[in-house]
Amino acid sequence: MTPALDMALDLALSAVLVGGGIFALVGSYGLMRLPRPMQRLHAPTKATTIGVGAALLVSALDLLGQGQVSWKEVLITIFLLLTAPISALFLAKTLILRGEADPDIPDSGTGKPWATLAPERHDP
Amino acid sequence: MRRLFPHPYLSLTLVILWFLLVNQWKLGSLVMAIILATIIPLLTTTWWPNRPRVKRPFGLAAYSILVLWDVIVANFQVARIVLFMPRDRIRSAWITVPLDLQSPEAISLLAGTITMTPGTLTSDMSACGRALLVHALHAPDPDSVRNDIKTRYEARLKRIFE
To answer: Which end of chain A lies in a sparser environment, N or C, as judged by fewer CB atoms within 10 Å?
Structure first.
């Protein structure tokens, strides 16, 4: 690859990295700025998607100039996408159970209560 | 063959995951990958009594691309709300999403999709598994968010899984 192309690649990757960093910063700022616990839960679950996504993309393509692509980052992305919703779900369920979530939770419309608020079931 | 590989898709996934982990193409890695892809499904088969059915694997790939795109677009919207919208004008809302999906794998994918697309968060499921409780960061019109989820994601997942 010519030095000019190499330079262009470096510039593009740096831009992606800085952009992702800004989104991660906005996510953390949202954690501080949003008033209610359920709203605060939104900010960090989102920053991971684009902030970490940008860092992983740059890490994977960093050595593209020398014809190398790193595939490990795909694995990190997969596990991140698998685990982030689960931790968010558990935080939300904890808030609901402790009564710290937003009030006036609607009816489930199925005749059964929401799982977190349902009476405890004993193992069969 | 069926007894040796009770979950062919899981075995294939494990081979791919192993190659992603070692990050290079070598014959030794392939041998190790095949060993793992044989042992792990055999040891965990108790927890997977049924094979998850995917009718359209390519539909799943197209779906992933759609979700990735939505994540990027919606991140800008959430960033704008967080940065510029006055606190008292943010209208958070609970949304009940009744489910047409039956398969547990499809429902968990839908719940994950809702959480990863910014602005909405899956918070709970009804005790019978027929509805999801979703929290929206800013939804002046909760009905349109529900329709978006049902037409954009649930309908596609239904075609892929059922």
So the answer is: C
Contacts made by residues B83-86, CB under 8 angstroms, sequence distance 24+: B83/A26, B83/A29, B85/B138
- ipTM of the complex, rounded to two decimals: 0.79
Helices (H) and strands (E) in chain B, counts: 6, 3
Residue A23 is encoded by which pair of tokens? 């989104």
Its sign, for the CA torsion B8, B10, B16, B19, is negative
Contact B121 A74 (CB under 8 A): no
Q: Helix A53-61 vs helix A3-33: angle between axes, to the nearest 10 degrees?
A: 160
For B111-158, how does the pLDDT look when each residue is reduced to its tens digit (9 = 90+)?
988 888 878 888 888 888 888 888 888 888 888 888 888 888 888 888
The CATH class given to the B57-161 domain equals alpha beta
pTM, rounded to two decimals = 0.82
Interface A-B, measured as beta-carbon pairs within 8 A, has a size of 135
Q: Sketch the domain layout of chain A as residue ranges.
A: 3-117
The reply to whether residue B96 touches residue A75, judged by beta carbons under 8 angstroms, is: no
